[in-house]
């Protein structure tokens, strides 16, 4: 089966972002960008399914600025076969991304879409579910295990309170949680090989999708800072502070 | 126009997170209705009707809603949506699973993880692991929201809502529940606990995790949480994880023990009223957010603390 993996280029997870002084957003100038960590796990899972002889082809898709080509190359260095970039400088929100992905799914006809559960920039946690809705497919979010099958897959989902096991009919959209796998590091030979893999570029209009945003960001501010605390000398002082100053125990 | 809150429940009882969602819904201006979809949900519907601020409870009682899978539920909610200005669910794993699917079917944008309502169409939500707060305006006719439970008080009792059955939709048969492994614990739920004792990689093993932290949690009547590192290392189950992609908590007091305080972890707990950090590494970032920091070996400090609490 063919597997499609949507990936997003985001601020690297180690970067402490700064809010712009004019409140228009966060400062992305000269900030390290990487593949969204959950998407890396999604790519790894798809590549493992290919290595196990279950997936026939792994196609990675990204929507966004031209530089997202690098992110697609990273995914191809992990082992994806080819990439598609839907290129736009416009603000893309989850609904628009899901519509673009639906258009790609209609063209590519994968049997399974494996996506990250959320992007660590907007933290929306929507795109996979919206895509499943638009396609009318089954969905399984936050999965920590995937057992392939012919007409259905079995997944374990991380839910509040524990784990849930589902049998999911194919075609389906799944979104991955942290503990599904540990993504490999791309080796230098594979990075070189990835440069030669096919990468197709198109525009939202080529797919006939209206990607206009529905949400307007009015302002972005820093959250209130916690005032600096104190270092206590020992357990006795800690208990004293908690009882007599903070009055919480 | 009225607001529809989607009740979270296990067919037996209403989950506490629903009560926070009701309070958020009350800030949107309009009657608050609640949808209870499940199988044999008489008791849940009764409980929902008693929640203060709820005017009407819609009940879809059918076997295809027993497992609460989003494929069937989203179609049901879509069918009810035209009478509502807002559809609201708590930002729990169940809410996050369902509401984007509803938004997709309705072709509207969802606003995730709302922490404040500025106007019926304007909401504040955290982005970048809570390192920034965005105020967004939603132009869609039906506004689909998930709300962060720690940002809104729980609605109390005292309501007497009308209970109205609604017709169930078809069973799409796309997904079958095989089973759930729910962590059983006598401790309070992480999301609702007043005191949380959280441990990290510094505990070293699952055995140490329970041996060191449980006595403290017992003494304080606390819930137990963990960092991602502790969960990844297998010390504790996944649902203990506090952080950007795990549980978001805001207790009266949060003990961070043997955890460094990665930004992803801080995102899940920095709204706690008082933060106490115990770590032998004086440079651990957790000390930058802690009200009280103790630089010490947790294996001696925590038992001492338990003893000192009497």
Topology summary:
The complex is a heterodimer of chains A (249) and B (310).
Chain A: E1 2-6, E2 9-11, E3 33-35, H1 37-51, E4 57-64, H2 68-78, E5 82-87, H3 94-108, E6 112-116, H4 127-135, E7 138-147, E8 152-159, E9 162-169, E10 172-176, H5 188-194, E11 199-202, E12 215-221, E13 230-232, H6 235-245
Parallel strand pairs in A: 1-4, 1-6, 4-5, 5-11, 6-10, 7-10
Antiparallel strand pairs in A: 2-3, 7-8, 8-9
Helix pairs in contact in A: 2-5, 3-4
Chain B: E1 2-6, H1 16-26, E2 32-38, H2 42-49, E3 54-61, H3 70-80, E4 84-90, H4 93-106, E5 110-114, E6 116-119, E7 122-127, E8 132-138, E9 143-147, E10 162-165, E11 175-182, E12 195-199, H5 206-220, E13 223-226, H6 228-232, E14 253-257, H7 263-269, E15 274-279, E16 292-295, H8 298-308
Parallel strand pairs in B: 1-2, 1-4, 2-3, 3-10, 4-9, 5-9, 12-13, 12-14, 14-15, 15-16
Antiparallel strand pairs in B: 6-7, 7-8
Helix pairs in contact in B: 3-4, 5-8
Task: Please name the defining characteristics of this protein.
heterodimer, A: alpha/beta, nine-stranded mixed β-sheet, two-stranded antiparallel ribbon, 6 helices, 27% helix, B: 310 residues, alpha/beta, seven-stranded parallel β-sheet, five-stranded parallel β-sheet, 16 strands, 29% strand
